[in-house]
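Protocol step 4 of 5: obtain the predicted structure for the target chain.
Materials: sequence only (see below). No template structures provided, no constraints applied. The aim of this step is simply to have a reference model before the mutagenesis design in step 5. Sequence pasted as it appears in the construct record:
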Amino acid sequence: MITLAPSPARVFLWISAVYLLVLGLGSLVVSPSFAVGDEVSGDHLFGVIETNGWHGLAGVVLGAASLAFAMSGRWAREGAVVMGASLLASGVVFLLYGEGSVALGLIPVDARDAVLLHVLPGVVGLVCAGATPSWRSQNATAGPVSQGDS
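Step 4 output (structure tokens):
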């Protein structure tokens, strides 16, 4: 029986699914507020990550998407691109809003969180996707076999 090593994209997706689901669910427990605009407030998860209900909900949704992509070997590379780009884009948006502000009127911004939990994993996801061959190239055959070949 031949066992194949998991692709870099799948490893990234499994790890991101776990950390996003843990942080998302933890955020919903610690700070279940879904306030908007000037009413937005956040609490700290594990004493360091500023979060609220919107941030937690986004973590759960992205974690579930990462899990779904991880379970599908065929779509792992594309999933790592989607997850990496989503995390990177959200981190850049948070950094553009600035420390202590409220991004999109929903999520309190913490620069440390933006870099460590969004930008850095986003870049890693895109690198892992780039290091993973597409399923088409993994399953390509040497060419059609005619009936006379053995």
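Step 4 remarks: The beta strands are 43-45, 49-51, 102-103, 107-108. The chain has one domain: 8-132.
Proceed to step 5.
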